[in-house]
Design brief:
- By secondary structure, the protein is of the alpha/beta class.
- 33% of the residues lie in helices and 17% in strands.
- The chain contains 5 helices and 6 strands.
- It has a 4-stranded parallel beta sheet with strand order 4-6-3-5, sandwiched between helices.
- Strand 1, helix 2 and strand 2 form a beta-alpha-beta unit.
- Helix 1 packs parallel to helix 5.
């Protein structure tokens, strides 16, 4: 993930009501100046942690009651708007590297893979833009 994309994701997460951002060991550092600038400083307010045992950490997150989602173009992916969280249900969304996407190992460990339905033969959005849409959808569900 690029430094600018991470900053945009953190800004969207903070503004749209996401509780925390979890980073994989290979993710860029959110403290990089460009990331902090793109986040508009929200990197200093929104809790984040770097996971060290990725993707084994997916099971640890699930054990805390989270429904595990991944955003990735796969044959079995369901449209994001088909995901409706029940009141009190918690979800964690995995976003991949824009070039390589979510790893096969992580995809095998999640509950559901989702996509944002697209038009005009566009197959995907920038990960920063896609994350904002996903965060808005998940946070607009009953809590």
């Amino acid at each position: 993930m690029t430094i600018a994309n991470l900053g945009a994701i953190i800004r969207s997460a903070s503004g749209l009501g996401i509780d925390a951002v979890l980073l994989t060991p290979k993710c860029v550092d959110p403290w990089y100046r460009r990331s902090a600038r793109v986040s508009m400083g929200t990197v200093f307010d929104l809790p984040w942690v770097r996971l060290e045992s990725w993707p084994r950490d997916i099971e640890r997150i699930r054990a805390h009651g989270y429904r595990m989602l991944a955003m990735e173009l796969t044959d079995d992916a369901v449209p994001l708007n088909d995901i409706q969280l029940a009141a009190g249900e918690k979800a964690a969304m995995i976003l991949g590297n824009e070039g390589r996407g979510v790893t096969a190992e992580a995809l095998a460990a999640v509950d559901t893979t989702v996509i944002i339905p697209m038009h005009r033969e566009v197959d995907s959005l920038n990960v920063g833009a896609a994350s904002a849409i996903a965060f808005w959808h998940l946070c607009s569900s009953p809590r």
